[in-house]
Amino acid sequence: MRIDAWLQKATKTLRETGVGSPLLEAQVLAAKAMGQSRMWVLIHPEAEITADADQLLDRRANWEPLAYIVGSREFYGLELEINHHVLVPRQDTESVVDEALRVLGGNKSPAILDLCTGSGCIALALKHSLPEASVTASDLSEEALEVARRNGESLGLDVEWIHSDLFQKLPNKKFDLIVTNPPYIARGEVIGKDVAAFEPEIALYAEDTGAEIMQRIAVDAGHHVNPGGFLVVECGLIQTQRFLNLFQASGWKLIEKIGDDGGWWGFSLRSPVR
Ligand SMILES: C[S@@+](CC[C@H](N)C(=O)[O-])C[C@H]1O[C@@H](n2cnc3c(N)ncnc32)[C@H](O)[C@@H]1O
Predict the structure, then answer these.
(1) How far is the CA of 182 from the centre of ligand 1 (A)?
(2) How far apart are the C-alpha atoms of 246 and 242, rounded to whole Å?
(3) What's the total number of domains in the chain?
(4) How far is the CA of 48 from the centre of ligand 1 (A)?
(5) Which of 10, 60, 117, 136 has its CA 20 to 30 A from that of 45?
(6) Is residue 137 domain-shared with residue 248, that is, in the same domain?
């Protein structure tokens, strides 16, 4: 089948599935199947599509996230490798990076920790924006850290990757900024079927109705921040006030809520350490 005919078929399938941008996604799938760029697909409508294309289309029609199918996702202008061991980086998380850069102000060489780094997206975006920063990133999942490490290598960004249960392997380290997007979904909470079926459980759920990891960070983060330092937290739209209360109870002072007209999904905080 010619590419243009396949694109018509695939767009119709994805539209009927309910995918948000069916034509764009069909073009991305065709590009993946051909081992070419989306631009190449657009200027070669007459080329014969490969047999693989239908399998890729079936996966997307079954709601598998596009990033897992094509194996990559752009985040903060960086092309990242993505696989089933890491959460697909979200657009909301880019505003967490924006807020981290904002609170750092003129500090061009801060010590930064990205706790629960997953694909490494936040750590790498910050290192790319602040080349003189010293950036450390940690995760409990060895498999996720392998992805993050490969992303750092392919982008030529020097980040220290540490396998750790939260702060456990960072006992004596202190940072000017800690940024984190930890797991915070309560077991049993209703989430998108694409998220629940395809994204790693370890990246999504926390015990104590979602608060267990937030609570541990709220208690321990103050020991790992320099006087006057910052914490920037992403925490979803549902339990935001509850999570903020945990940090305020540990002495952290709210600087800014991160969100838009639809609500807020994170916040920045000033250190309890003077
Ligand atoms: C919500 S994902 C965020 C990934 C990435 N920072 C992002 O924004 O796309 C949470 C990450 O926390 C990691 N994680 C879960 N429990 C952890 C723990 N106790 N200590 C460190 N990392 C943990 C997971 O492996 C996962 O990569």
Answers:
(1) 5
(2) 7
(3) 2
(4) 41
(5) 60
(6) yes
E strand map for the chain: 72-75, 78-81, 111-115, 134-139, 159-163, 175-180, 225-234, 253-260, 263-270
Q: Which residue has the tokens 């850290």?
A: 145
Question: What pTM, to 2 d.p., does this model score?
Answer: 0.96
DSSP per-residue letters across 124-169: HHHHHH-TTSEEEEEES-HHHHHHHHHHHHHHT--EEEEE-STTTT
Domain of 132, in residue numbers: 83-270
68 in any annotated domain: no
Residue 238 burial (10 A CB sphere; 0-12, 13-18, 19+): middle
**Residue 35 has which token pair?**
């081992």
Out of 78, 113, 140, mutate this one to test ligand 1's pocket (max ligand atoms within 8 Å of CB): namely 140
274 residues of the chain, pLDDT tens digit each: 999 999 999 999 999 999 989 999 999 999 999 999 999 999 999 999 999 999 999 999 999 999 999 999 999 999 999 999 999 999 999 999 999 999 999 899 999 999 999 999 999 999 999 999 999 999 999 999 999 999 999 999 999 999 999 999 998 889 999 999 999 999 989 888 889 999 999 999 999 899 999 999 999 999 999 999 999 999 999 999 999 999 999 999 999 999 999 899 999 999 987 6
Please give the Cα distance from 52 to 195 (Å, whole number). Answer: 24
Regarding whether 95 and 54 lie in a shared domain, the answer is: no
Residue 210 Cα to ligand 1 midpoint, Å, equals 13
Q: Which of 61, 68, 78 is nearest to 26 (CA)?
A: 61
Residues 48 and 125 in one domain: no
